[in-house]
């Protein structure tokens, strides 16, 4: 078979040579010429020698690439119609397969190409082969043709150059010298450099251009002889390679460290977006590489080609990818240490750029990067779920007890807050999710899901994943606003209707703040004596019994059973020497979820107010009791009759003193009571009611309640600034209670006296020994006189003390900041009685 | 050769000839067919071109032969 082939080959070659030599298109008669036999033999031998030298072709056997280059050449020569028909023919040619077709199509094409080029070249003069190697085919051909035409009449005589006096010859010489110079300098050809640069731009070391770790860049080592301009250009182009390395390094690092959970979902999104950009970049590089291969370098020296892709062309192509790659490298640098929302925020800052290319690029990156964040927001706002394994979200949760879920369960993590989400929006987002969780955990409510779906429908997005993206911050705001509105409303509805928040507030006002007057009266009446005992002897069960009976006998019995159950007696921490009065207090039991509003500290505040009000009530009660005793009645009037003159006048004086003092004290206490009840409590309550009506969400409600409490505390002299005043007030109260004691004693004495004297008149029989009645009337009078004198003195002391204390109190009152206390002063001193007493004020 | 293969071969040759005309190689149909056959047998096309060029040179260098007596 081999021999057969060989013989066939030889025959064919012979045939070929014969044909070629006999073919002469310039022959006038166009007849087949018979060649010289010697010529024929020579040629044949030469042919065989060449063909058996087993030269391998210098190009890859790619028929398509060759066809492309032929087409391009035809097109650049301006023969575009020919190019089209060639393309057509080639398509048909290439589609012929099977028996009888040509197997090595590429060989045929290559053959045709070289032959046609050779012909063109041989039609030009010989010198054009020595032209600049880097010029394009165009220039060469044009130059060759023009030179050809110009030299048409010159003729060549055995290759001897005829030097003539025309400038073109000089140019020729100059060109030749230059070509020699370039050949000297260029150890490395441009195509190879271009290919190396293309490799460098993918991060791979080429034959000559390698990555130098010391210089941190791709360099052409010094030992290769390359002109300096080329070196600089290579350096510039390899910047792209350096940037590419950086970006790719970041991506691989992130992907590696993903299992260790240092890179969060946002980081992964960034990596994915960068990888997409890099694949675009690879596409560009692939196109450039095919360009670089084309046109193909040829073996035949007479047909040189300029490479389509020179370093300069490459630098033009690289302009846009360079910009993008630089952006990506900058991003990679800033985002290496950031995570989550902070990363999104910093990328957003980069996107604030005037250049539309940069802006668009950053925007598309951001859209990808923010999608996990937005997803988290959406889930939080519509479902209250925080799925944040890598802690990238700007809301963090802390496990707390149910009571403090609202206040402390969730908070904003401002580091992770991206800059395109403003603070108010973030607050609203936090509150909405908190409300959902609150409803779910504390209120056992399921209705929020409907509210959420409604909100989503209203905002135009769905409750599915991935319906929001960056650049749609408006849509996000819309969604959040809708969700917030609905969920807040729902929460407030639940608070008001299911948990009867308002009713509870009212109940606290009535019981803890002593608003239910008749109940307080009964309570005071029943446990009054009980509380005068030392604290450790009082049992809270007994007190609870009293409480119950007080409730039953007042209007409070018509109240809601649930509310009444919550009112309890609370004995505070006792120290020795305390009376019941000091440790008694009522408390209200608020359960979840109401204890979000009525926390421990809030209840402590209420207790303080209760204590104060209770004391005030006690004093009032005491004074009223005193009045009851001091009513003019027959006993006292009788004593007027029976007693002697001196004693009588003394009695009158004492009584009068007593009455006057009582009046003063009563005036003070009544006005204070009035002030507290109406100007402080009721006013604050109505303000609070209004605010409750207009509250939009639980935060508002909490704030309103705090304001309510604070205003009560401030106005009723319990605040920090009123401390000295508060102390003097208590001293006053003590004084009043002492007075009451005195009054009781006085009247007891009077009754005793009365009884004695009436007894004396009624019965003249013998009295039991030891009583002073038996001493007779004189002794009685004397005793009475002494007694009354003592009383009078003590009452006088009390009166003096009272006046001085009141003066102190009143003097401190105007100093207070709160404007309402001025009203108290006005009430207490509306006749300016006190200020007149002390005109120095 | 069956008629199908013959037809394919003829068409391929025709197409190659037309391509060669577009490229202005100056080869005629017969020469081209020989060249194609040689390429198909696996010879290096560059070598073949050298042969062609050589012969062309020889042709252009030698004066147009007078109609001599055929051998």
From TrEMBL, chain A:
Residues 503-834 form the Gamma tubulin complex component C-terminal domain. It comes from Linum tenue. Belongs to the TUBGCP family. GO terms for molecular function: gamma-tubulin binding; microtubule minus-end binding. It is found in: Cytoplasm, Cytoskeleton. One of its GO terms (cellular component) is gamma-tubulin complex. Its main location: cytoplasm. GO terms for biological process: cytoplasmic microtubule organization; meiotic cell cycle; microtubule nucleation; mitotic cell cycle; spindle assembly. Residues 194-496 form the Gamma tubulin complex component protein N-terminal domain. Keywords: Cytoplasm, Cytoskeleton, Microtubule. This is Gamma-tubulin complex component.
Automatic annotation (TrEMBL), chain B:
Keywords: Cytoplasm, Cytoskeleton. The keyword Cytoplasm applies. The keyword Cytoplasm applies. GO terms for cellular component: gamma-tubulin ring complex; interphase microtubule organizing center; spindle. GO terms for biological process: gamma-tubulin complex localization; microtubule nucleation by interphase microtubule organizing center; mitotic spindle assembly. Belongs to the MOZART1 family. This is Mitotic-spindle organizing protein 1.
């Amino acid at each position: 078979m081999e021999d057969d082939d060989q013989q066939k080959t030889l025959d064919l070659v012979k045939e070929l040579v014969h044909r070629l030599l006999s073919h002469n298109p310039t022959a006038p008669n166009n007849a087949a010429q018979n060649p010289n036999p010697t010529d024929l033999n020579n040629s044949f031998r030469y042919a065989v020698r060449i063909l058996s030298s087993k030269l391998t072709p210098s190009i890859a056997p790619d028929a398509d690439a060759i066809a492309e280059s032929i087409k391009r050449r035809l097109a650049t020569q301006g023969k575009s119609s020919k190019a089209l028909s060639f393309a057509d023919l080639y398509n048909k040619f290439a589609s012929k397969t099977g028996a009888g077709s040509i197997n090595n199509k590429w060989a045929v094409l290559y053959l045709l190409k070289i032959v046609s080029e050779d012909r063109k070249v041989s039609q030009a003069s010989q010198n054009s082969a020595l032209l600049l190697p880097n010029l394009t085919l165009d220039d060469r051909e044009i130059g060759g043709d023009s030179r050809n035409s110009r030299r048409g009449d010159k003729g060549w005589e055995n290759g001897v150059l005829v030097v003539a006096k025309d400038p073109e010859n000089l140019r020729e010489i100059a060109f030749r010298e230059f070509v020699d110079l370039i050949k000297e300098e260029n150890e490395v050809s441009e195509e190879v450099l271009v290919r190396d640069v293309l490799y460098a731009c993918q991060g791979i070391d080429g034959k000559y251009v390698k990555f130098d770790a010391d210089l941190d860049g791709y360099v052409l080592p010094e030992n290769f002889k390359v002109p300096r301009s080329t070196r600089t250009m290579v350096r510039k182009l390899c910047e792209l390679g350096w940037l590419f390395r950086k970006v790719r390094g970041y991506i691989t690092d992130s992907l590696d460290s993903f299992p260790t959970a240092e890179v969060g979902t946002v980081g992964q999104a960034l990596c994915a977006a960068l990888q997409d950009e890099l694949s675009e970049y690879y596409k560009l590089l692939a196109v450039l590489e095919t360009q670089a291969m084309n046109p193909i370098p040829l073996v035949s020296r007479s047909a040189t080609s300029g490479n389509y892709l020179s370093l300069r062309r490459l630098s033009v192509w690289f302009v846009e990818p360079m910009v993008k790659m630089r952006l990506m490298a900058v991003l990679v640098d800033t985002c290496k240490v950031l995570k989550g929302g902070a990363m999104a925020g910093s990328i957003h800052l980069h996107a604030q750029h005037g250049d539309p290319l940069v802006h668009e690029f950053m925007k598309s990156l951001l859209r990808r990067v923010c999608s996990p964040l937005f997803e988290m927001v959406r889930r939080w706002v519509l479902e209250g779920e925080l799925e944040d394994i890598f802690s990238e979200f700007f809301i963090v949760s802390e496990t707390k007890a149910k009571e403090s879920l609202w206040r402390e369960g969730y908070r904003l993590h401002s580091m992770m807050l991206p800059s395109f989400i403003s603070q108010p929006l973030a607050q609203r987002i936090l509150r909405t999710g908190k409300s959902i969780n609150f409803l779910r955990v504390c209120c056992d409510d399921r209705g929020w899901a409907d509210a959420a779906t409604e909100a989503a429908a209203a905002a135009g997005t769905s409750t599915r994943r991935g319906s929001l993206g960056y650049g749609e911050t408006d849509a996000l705001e819309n969604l959040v606003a809708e969700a917030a509105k609905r969920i807040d409303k729902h929460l407030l509805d639940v608070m008001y209707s299911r948990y009867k928040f308002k009713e509870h507030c009212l109940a606290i006002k009535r019981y803890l703040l002593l608003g239910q007057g008749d109940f307080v009266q009964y309570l005071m009446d029943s446990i009054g004596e009980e509380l005068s005992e030392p604290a450790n002897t009082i049992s809270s069960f007994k007190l609870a019994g009293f409480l119950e009976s007080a409730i039953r006998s007042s209007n409070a019995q018509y109240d809601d059973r649930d509310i009444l159950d919550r009112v309890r007696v609370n004995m505070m921490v006792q120290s020795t020497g305390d009376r019941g009065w000091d440790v008694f207090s009522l408390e209200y039991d608020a359960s979840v979820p109401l204890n979000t509003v009525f926390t421990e500290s809030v209840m402590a505040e209420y207790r303080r107010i209760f204590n104060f009000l209770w004391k005030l009530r006690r004093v009032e009660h005491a004074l009223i009791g005193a009045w009851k005793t001091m009513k003019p009645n027959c006993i006292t009037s009788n004593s007027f009759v029976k007693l002697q003159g001196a004693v009588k006048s003394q009695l009158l004086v004492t009584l009068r003193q007593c009455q006057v003092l009582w009046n003063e004290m009563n005036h003070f206490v009544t006005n204070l009571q009035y002030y507290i009840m109406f100007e402080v409590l009721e006013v604050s309550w109505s303000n609070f009611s209004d605010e409750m009506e207009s509250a939009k969400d639980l935060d508002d409600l909490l704030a309103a309640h705090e304001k309510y409490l604070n205003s009560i505390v401030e106005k009723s002299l319990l605040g920090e600034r009123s401390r000295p005043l508060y102390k003097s007030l208590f001293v006053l109260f003590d004084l009043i209670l002492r007075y009451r004691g005195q009054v009781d004693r006085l009247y007891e004495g009077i009754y005793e006296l009365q009884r004695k004297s009436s007894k004396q008149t009624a019965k003249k029989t013998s009295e039991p020994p030891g009583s002073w009645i038996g001493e007779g009337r004189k002794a009685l009078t004397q005793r009475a006189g002494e007694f009354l004198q003592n009383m009078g003195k003590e009452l006088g002391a009390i009166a003096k003390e009272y006046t001085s204390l009141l003066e102190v109190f009143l003097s401190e009152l105007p100093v207070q900041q709160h404007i309402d206390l001025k009203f108290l002063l006005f009430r207490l001193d509306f006749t300016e009685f006190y200020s007149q007493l002390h005109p120095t004020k | 050769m069956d008629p199908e293969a013959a037809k394919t071969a003829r068409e391929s040759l025709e197409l190659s000839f037309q391509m060669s005309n577009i490229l202005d190689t100056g080869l005629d149909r017969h020469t081209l067919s020989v060249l194609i056959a040689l390429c198909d047998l696996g010879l290096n096309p560059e070598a073949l071109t050298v042969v062609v060029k050589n012969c062309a040179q020889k042709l252009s260098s030698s004066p147009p032969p007078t109609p001599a007596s055929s051998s």
